[in-house]
Amino acid sequence: MTQGFTHFDADGQAHMVDVGAKAETRRIGIAEGRITMAPETFAMVQSGSAKKGDVIGIARIAAIQGAKRTADLIPLCHPIPLTRVTVDFALDAAAHTITCTATAETVGRTGVEMEALTAVQVGLLTIYDMCKAVDRGMTMDSIRLLEKQGGKSGHWRADAT
Amino acid sequence: MTQGFTHFDADGQAHMVDVGAKAETRRIGIAEGRITMAPETFAMVQSGSAKKGDVIGIARIAAIQGAKRTADLIPLCHPIPLTRVTVDFALDAAAHTITCTATAETVGRTGVEMEALTAVQVGLLTIYDMCKAVDRGMTMDSIRLLEKQGGKSGHWRADAT
Amino acid sequence: MTQGFTHFDADGQAHMVDVGAKAETRRIGIAEGRITMAPETFAMVQSGSAKKGDVIGIARIAAIQGAKRTADLIPLCHPIPLTRVTVDFALDAAAHTITCTATAETVGRTGVEMEALTAVQVGLLTIYDMCKAVDRGMTMDSIRLLEKQGGKSGHWRADAT
Amino acid sequence: MTQGFTHFDADGQAHMVDVGAKAETRRIGIAEGRITMAPETFAMVQSGSAKKGDVIGIARIAAIQGAKRTADLIPLCHPIPLTRVTVDFALDAAAHTITCTATAETVGRTGVEMEALTAVQVGLLTIYDMCKAVDRGMTMDSIRLLEKQGGKSGHWRADAT
Amino acid sequence: MTQGFTHFDADGQAHMVDVGAKAETRRIGIAEGRITMAPETFAMVQSGSAKKGDVIGIARIAAIQGAKRTADLIPLCHPIPLTRVTVDFALDAAAHTITCTATAETVGRTGVEMEALTAVQVGLLTIYDMCKAVDRGMTMDSIRLLEKQGGKSGHWRADAT
Amino acid sequence: MTQGFTHFDADGQAHMVDVGAKAETRRIGIAEGRITMAPETFAMVQSGSAKKGDVIGIARIAAIQGAKRTADLIPLCHPIPLTRVTVDFALDAAAHTITCTATAETVGRTGVEMEALTAVQVGLLTIYDMCKAVDRGMTMDSIRLLEKQGGKSGHWRADAT
C-alpha cells in the first residue's frame, strides 16, 4: 500500500487518470453482493421467478444496463466499451437472501471493476424497488469485488470470507 | 404483508404503477450504508478530507447526481422532481468505516426511497473507485432505508440495529 | 387541419412550445405497433416466454424505460413526470407477428402520445435485437397512436383499420 | 436458422454476449422505415423543408443523436464507438409518405444494425412529434434492416419487397 | 449580497437545497452569449442558413435539448419540468459574430436561469463543432443571464453593457 | 480555409462524418474560459476553496463529467473513449476572475477539442450555479480552444491574446 490515490494529482486535485499509454488487454471484473429480506418476501420472489412476477429477470436487465451507465455515475471513471456483461442471482432460502454476481469484460486500457460493482448495486436496488411495497426493511450487504484480471496489476482475488 | 408486489399486474407482467390518483404530498426518504476499508486506506481518506484529495467531497457530489438518475437506472421507478437531496458521511476511525446517509425529498405522487438508496449506493461506489488503487478489498454493507415520510402509508422507521 | 405546426414559430424556427398556461389534467396516450418475423423465430419467442429466454419480458422492461427517455430522444418534447406506463404484447401465431401496445399517463400540461409511441418503438427494437441472430428480415409495421385522452383537444381515437 | 438466440445463456438467462474475442473490423448497418400521413400534412412538411419549419432537418439531427443512444435504450446492446452516421429522407408525394434511411458504421467487435434501426425509429418519431398537432393518424411502417456488412456473418441484404 | 452561498450547509457541505416549501410559480430565465469567428467562416454560416448546411438550425435543436439536460450536467441543479424553451440566433456581419439568446420557462419551485444558460452554451458549442474544420480560433464570449422572472427574488435584469 | 464544413454532405445535409478510415492516434485537446464576478463573490469562492464550501472542487468534478457527455450534447460529435481529463482553475484576485483550463485525451480516430470545450463550459456553468444566489451578473468569456495535438491536421495552437 505504498501507492497513493491515483485519482488525485500532486496538488490533491481530482482528475481522470491518463490511461492512454496503457496496453489494450482483456480485462475482467467480478463483483457480488446480497440482499436479505423477510421470509415471506423471499418466498414471493422465489415463486415469481418460476412462474410470474419475475423480479429476478427484471433485476438482471437493470444490472446489465447499469453496468453501461458506470461512467455516467462515477465521476472519475473512464468510458469503457464493454465486451461482455453477465449477471447471476443465487437464492438462499435458509437465509432468505439473494446474492447477485456480475461479471464485466472489456478489451481496453483500464479495468472494469467499477462496472461489475455498479451492475451488482443496480441489480440489488431493483430487487429492493420491486419488493418494497411488502418489505421496507430489506438490507444490502457484502457488496465487494471478487476478482480482477488483466492490466499491469494482474490477477487479484478477494480473500475467502 | 397482505399486500402483493405492486410492480406486477394480475397476470404477473411488470408495469410502472399508476400513481395519477395519488395526492401530491411532501415525501421524504432517508437511507444509509457503509464502506469498510483497510486502516491505511481509511487514514488516507481522512487526511484528504481535511486537506487535499477530497474523496468525501467528490462522493457527495456523485451521490447527489446519482439520486437524480434513479428513474434511469431502476426500471419501474417513476421520474420524480426532487426538491431536496442531502448526503452526509460519518467517519468511524475505530472501525475504519465510512457511513453515508442520504435524504431525498419531493412534493409528488410517489415516494423517494429509491432516490435516497441510489444516492447512498453511488456515494459508496465513488469512494470505492477513488480508493481502489490502494485497497481492492473494501466492502459495502448495511445499505438500507432508515425512514420514510409522506404518502398513504405514512411514517415508517427502520428497526434499530 | 386549419392549425399549423405548433413546433415552429412565425418565422419557421423550431421551439419547445409554451405549455405553461395549460391546465394540469390527467392525460393518457395509447400506441401500438407490431413486428413480423419468420415462423421459426416466432416459435422460439413463444416458447421462451413460457419457459426460458424471456424475450417478451425483457422487451417490456426496455419499453417502459424507453418511455422515460422520450424527452431525451425527441428534440421538442417536454420533460414529463409520467404517472403510469404499461406495455402489453399479443402474440399472433397465424401471422407470426407480435403486437406491442403501450399506455402512458401523466397529470400534466401536455400530452403523452410521444411517450406511448416511444415505448412501442423501443419494445419492438428490443425484440428485433434479441432475435436478430436467427432472423435479420423481421419488419416493424403499423406503429401508430391508438387513443389520446385529456387536454384541450379532448378524446381522440384512431380509425379502425 | 440452426443457431439459437445468442442473448440467452444455456439456462435461458439474458446476458450481454461476449464479443471480446471477435476481431475489430469495419461494420456497416443500413436500415429504413417510412411514415405515411395525410396529404395536407405531407404538403406542409414538403414546403417546410424548402423554406422554413424544417421538419426533415430536425428529424435528421434527432436520428443521428438517437443512434448514439442505442446502448442506453436496448438492454443487451454493447456500447459502440460509432465512426459514421448518415440519415436520409425521401419524400414520395404520390403516397404522401416519407422514407427514412440510416447508415451506421463502426470499426469494432460487433455490428451496428441496432444503431441504424434506432436512428430510423427516432427520425420517424420526431416527424410524428412535429406534425401531430395537425395529424394524429400518421402511421410508421416497414421499419427493417436493409443491409449489413462486416463481421463473421459477412454481407447480408434484405430481400427486395 | 448579504446572503451566503445557498448550495452549502452550515458545515460547508454541498447539497441540493430544499425548495419543497416554495410556491409553484411561473418562472422565466433569459440568457445570451456570442461566438466570434473569422469573416470567411461567418460568411459560410450565413449562406448555409439561407440555403443548405444549416448550422444555425442544428445549433438551435442542440440548445433546446441541452436545456433539458441541465440537471444532468450541473450537480446541484434540481430536475425541472420545463414548459417552454426558445432559442434565437442573431448574425452580426460587421463583427462576424453570432449571438445566441435562450429563454426557458417552468411552472415550478425553483428558477430556470441555469437551463437558459446551458441552452446558450450548448448552442454555441454546436456552432463551434460544425465550423471547427475551417476555423479553430473561434471564441465564445459574454455568456450571461439577461433576465429572470418569478419566485421570491422577483424580477431581475442584467445591467445594460 | 479552402476546406468546407465537413459536417454537411454535398447536398448540405448534416451527418456524422466518416472517421472509420482514420488512424487511431493519441489526440489531445486543451481549452480554456473564464468567469468574472463581483469582488465579494470572488472572495467567497476563494475562501471556500481553502476551507469549506468548495465551489472549485465541485466545478472540477462537473467539468470532468461534462467532458464524458459531449457526444450526448453536441449532435454531430462521435462518441469517444476518453483516456484522460484534467481540469484546472486559476483564481485572479485582481480581476476577480476564475479561469478554467481543461485537457482531454484519447487514443482514437477523431479529435477531442469538443470534449475539452464542453468540460470548460460545464465547469464555468457550475461555478455560476453555485454563486448565483449572491451574484446573478457573472459573465463567462474567452472560451476557446488553446491547443490541439494528433490526427492528420497535426499540432495547432491558438494565437496568444
Automatic annotation (TrEMBL), chains A, B, C, D, E, F:
It holds the Pfam family MoaC. Residues 16-151 form the Molybdopterin cofactor biosynthesis C (MoaC) domain. Pathway: Cofactor biosynthesis; molybdopterin biosynthesis. It catalyses: (8S)-3',8-cyclo-7,8-dihydroguanosine 5'-triphosphate = cyclic pyranopterin phosphate + diphosphate. Substrate binds at L76, C77, H78, M114, E115. The active site is at D129. One of its GO terms (molecular function) is cyclic pyranopterin monophosphate synthase activity. GO terms for biological process: Mo-molybdopterin cofactor biosynthetic process. Its EC number is 4.6.1.17. Keywords: Lyase, Molybdenum cofactor biosynthesis. InterPro entries: MoaC, MoaC_bact/euk, MoaC_sf, MoCo_biosynth_MoaA/MoaC, Mopterin_CF_biosynth-C_dom. It is an enzyme of class 4 (lyase). It comes from the Bacteria. PANTHER family: CYCLIC PYRANOPTERIN MONOPHOSPHATE SYNTHASE, MOLYBDOPTERIN COFACTOR SYNTHESIS PROTEIN A. Catalyzes the conversion of (8S)-3',8-cyclo-7,8-dihydroguanosine 5'-triphosphate to cyclic pyranopterin monophosphate (cPMP). NCBIfam families: moaC, PRK09364.1. Homohexamer; trimer of dimers. HAMAP family: MoaC_B (MF_01224_B). Belongs to the MoaC family. This is Cyclic pyranopterin monophosphate synthase. It comes from Denitromonas halophila.
